Amino acid sequence: MRTVHRFHTGLLLAGLSLLPLIALAPGSAIAAGTLQRSPIAGNAFAGSSVNVVANIRQSIASHNGQQFTAFYDVDGFMVLARRALNSDTQPSAWETHRTSHRGNVADAHNSISLAIDGAGFLHVSWDHHGNPLNYARSVAPGSLELATKSPMTGQREARVTYPQFFPLPSGDLLFLYRDGRSGQGSLVLNRYDTATQTWRTVQPDLISGEGQRSPYWAMTVDARGTLHLAWNWRESPDVASNHDLAYARSTDGGLSWTKSDSTSYALPITAASAEYAALIPQNSNLMNPPFITTDSASNPAIVSYWSPKPDAAPQFQIIHHDGKTWQQIPGPARTDKFSLAGTGTKRPPISRALLLFSSSAKTSSLHLVYRDDSRSGRIIIATRESIPDSVWRETELTPDSVGAWEPSFDPVAWEKFQQFHILVQRAEQRDGNDHTAAPTPPEKISVLTWTP
Predict the structure, then answer these.
(1) pLDDT band of 177, cuts 50, 70, 90
(2) 3-state helix/strand/coil string of the chain
(3) Cβ(118)–Cβ(194) under 8 Å?
């Protein structure tokens, strides 16, 4: 069951609970139940979804009262941005810095990932689809100016895809990426030591496709510092060969890994040794990668979409570990059918989704965020008041279409302030085409902030 709500400026529709989209002056108080949009720039590249592809870690990140993000401009140059941020007032205006680094923006794989270490240095990685590592660190804490591009460890850095940063409670960083190519790759894990300002390899081959398949993965670090890793397998470059959802966790920064029952893994993890949270056949319209988060008890929850049976419409599903077993929670019901197959960046009618848990004294709510073309391409946040509840309350966060947009968010702002910050831009994406951008003019790029 689901109910629908909308955010629109100055509109109130019968039967719908609406909240306004507002722009507050700097220093104004942020009220619960509001939605704000903070413009960054008006010249973001929009011919592919490279600026707003799903599950970037991180596309937007906070540290010590500052928030950072990055995007490619209309000429393909990487632009870094920064603003002051706190929990009680409207953030300050964005300051931007156009770097000398360019990306192949026609290919949406070449997204930008960033993080801030415990000393305040900004780390950035960009423009990767099976090519040598592009990585740089800021010249000073809090600075938008990058030092010269450099290697991390110099090992297994020739065929990098899907770079992602993860801050640890200690202030160190983890960096994960695929070494190899679609359908034939392995997962590499590096660690940055903030005290020595050096990188080292923790796992050169954490998950191995054994030369036959590739893992498409997502990770999160919970409040206790535990790493939770989820992935699906792909047998070939064809997305139709995606199958299954697997899980692993680490309590020592990635040195050793276990299943959910604390059984130790022998590394690398393979298709034969993996724990499976859900068994999903090939040709099920399973999208990659999944998204993973944890509830207030640090139990993992994995999100993806697939068709539960042949010829059925793909549905969002949450696979949640309740402390004993994996439980499946259906997302909002969908009836629109489509087929997910082929190579290259796909342009399906729904985006990948992310999941947030918010807790009160009485319950723990679930919030699923995605874009749906059946809802005129708007951003949707679907809320379920508790896991036992069966009703999803859907709210439209944007009045207009965002094109091929997909969600990624600032996990620190959510954890510290219970504010949901996402990078938003209308973008187009040619289905299966990573070589030619859509003939689309530049678009505004902004940060949308929702406070429950």
Answers:
(1) very high
(2) CEEEEEECCCCCCCCCCCECEECCCCCCECCCCCEEEEEEEEEECCCCCCCCCCCCCCCEEEECCEEEEEEEECCCEEEEEEEECCCCECCCCCEEEEEEEECCCCCCCCCCEEEECCCCCEEEECCCCCECCCEEEECCCCCCCECCCCCCCCCCCCCEEEEEEEECCCCCEEEEEEEEECCEEEEEEEEEECCCCEEEEEECCCEECCCCCEEEEEEEECCCCCEEEEEEEECCCCHHHEEEEEEEEECCCCCCCECCCCCECCCCECCCCCEEEECCCCCCCCCCCCEEEECCCCCEEEEEEECCCCCCCCEEEEEEECCCCEEEEECCCCCCCCCCCCCCCCCCCECCCEEEEEECCCCEEEEEEEEEHHHCCEEEEEEECCCCCCCEEEEECCCCCCECCCCCECHHHHHHHCCEEEEEECECCCCCCCCCCCCCCCEEEEEEEECC
(3) yes
Phi and psi dihedrals of 416, rounded to 5?
Answer: -85, -40
User: Phi and psi for 297 in degrees, rounded to 5?
Assistant: -95, 10
Please say whether the beta carbons of 352 and 402 come within 8 A: no
Tell me the pLDDT tens digit for each residue of 185-196.
789 999 999 999
CA-based nearest residue to 53, from 199, 161, 147, 182: 161
The contacts of residue 154 (CB under 8 Å, 6+ apart) are none
User: Which pTM value belongs to this model?
Assistant: 0.92
The Cα 365–Cα 356 span in angstroms is: 8
Which residue type, as a one-letter code, is found at position 267? L
Residue type, 75: D
pLDDT over threshold 60, residue 174? yes
* Residue 215 pLDDT greater than 90, yes or no: yes
Percent of the chain with pLDDT over 90: 84
C-beta atoms surrounding 393 within 10 Å: 19
The whole-angstrom separation of Cα 10 and Cα 175 is 44
Is 73:98 a contact under the CB 8 Å cutoff?
yes
Q: Which residue reads 């302030």 in tokens?
A: 417
Tell me the C-alpha distance between 54 and 288, whole Å.
10
Rounded to the nearest angstrom, the gap between the alpha carbon of residue 227 and the centroid of all alpha carbons in its chain is 16
CA angle 205, 340, 305 (to 5 degrees): 70
pLDDT for residue 13 is more than 50: no
Q: Tens digits of per-residue pLDDT, 357-383?
A: 998 656 789 999 999 999 999 999 999
Residues in the chain: 452
